[in-house]
Amino acid sequence: MKKRFDGVHGSPSEMRLLHYLAFLFAISLCSFDALHGQDLAPRAYLITPIHSNAVTLSYAFYSGNLNFDGAVPITDATAKTSVSLFNYSHSLRFFGRTANFLAVLPYGVGNFQGTVVDAPPKAYRSGLLDSAFRFSVNLMGGPAMDVQDFSRWQQKTLLGISLKVVTPTGQYDPTKLINFGAN
């Protein structure tokens, strides 16, 4: 029997299991109050050969005003921060579909200043930010393939789902207003 790589067909038991897992995932989402459903991750569903690994180092610089919306008596607040990211990604087979696991470890350095009750304090922070872990799986259009099959495959429409967990590993001091961690 010739195996098809159009991403739609699978064995009936695989498809049943995939539908069951998607149903359980959807039900679990309804039971959590603190879930947020927005994340810009365009490469979360990138098709790669199974057992591929990638290490990515990124750097971002942010500069601008801070708006506390009257929550604290700080005015004219500005920040200049640098964030370095270490990413590790591994692709794998998940019930016949392409999936990947991503771990992100960020480190930040920032200078903050503003006016607090007519005093111009400055703050410097450096340390780990909150780590993130993401598991993504293609439900349609991305069969799990080895390198030989991947070289012959042509991408079509993809449909995927992912779960991202952000852990409170960032530097946090409850006595300070500005923290890199969201603990």
What does this structure look like?
This protein has 183 residues and is mainly β. It has 2 helices and 6 strands. It has helices at 12-30, 147-152; strands at residues 53-65, 74-94, 97-116, 122-128, 131-140, 159-167. Strands 1, 2, 3, 4, 5 and 6 form a 6-stranded antiparallel beta sheet that branches. A hairpin with a 2-residue loop joins strand 2 (74-94) and strand 3. The radius of gyration is 22 Å and the shape is elongated.
Total helices: the number is 2
**Mean pLDDT across residues:** 80
Number of distinct beta strands: 6
Unreliable spans are none
Compute the separation of the termini in Å. Answer: 54 Å
List the helices and strands and how they pair.
Layout (H helix, E strand, L loop, with lengths): L11 H19 L22 E13 L8 E21 L2 E20 L5 E7 L2 E10 L6 H6 L6 E9 L16
Antiparallel strand pairs: 1-2, 2-3, 3-4, 3-5, 5-6
In short:
The chain is mostly beta strands. It has helices at residues 12-30, 147-152; strands spanning 53-65, 74-94, 97-116, 122-128, 131-140, 159-167.
Tags for this model:
single chain, 183 residues, mainly beta, 14% helix, 44% strand, elongated
